[in-house]
Design brief:
This protein is mainly alpha-helical. The chain has a single domain (3-84), classed as Non-ribosomal Peptide Synthetase Peptidyl Carrier Protein, Chain A (Orthogonal Bundle), CATH 1.10.1200.10. Helix content is 52%, strand content 0%. The protein contains 3 helices and no strands. It has helices at residues 3-18, 39-53, 68-80. Helix 1 (3-18) packs across helix 2 (39-53) and helix 1 (3-18) packs across helix 3. The longest helix has 16 residues, at 3-18.
Length: 85
């Protein structure tokens, strides 16, 4: 899966789950500051990503996530890391 596909899916989840206007979501958008995603919402986001990724997501993989691009990069690593299966 490409990073563009991951970004598009992330935008869909943010729109559906948190009613965030897709126009506000850019790779450089900061989750907490720009999109008003708090720590509880961040956990909910991970829960919503889990079935799409097809494996359990470890919170450690998202500790340094601050922007939408960070989410995309973390998911891309998880999806392409065959050792993580």
């Amino acid at each position: 899966m490409t990073k563009d596909e991951i970004f598009a899916k992330t935008v869909d989840i943010l729109r559906e789950a948190f009613e965030i206007d897709p126009e506000r979501v850019r790779p450089e958008s900061r989750l907490y500051d720009d999109l008003d995603i708090d720590s509880i919402d961040a956990v909910d986001l991970i829960v919503r990503l889990r079935p799409w990724v097809g494996r359990r997501l470890q919170p450690e993989a998202f500790k340094t996530v601050r922007t939408v691009q960070d989410v995309v990069d973390a998911l891309h690593r998880l999806l392409n890391d065959t050792a993580a299966v």
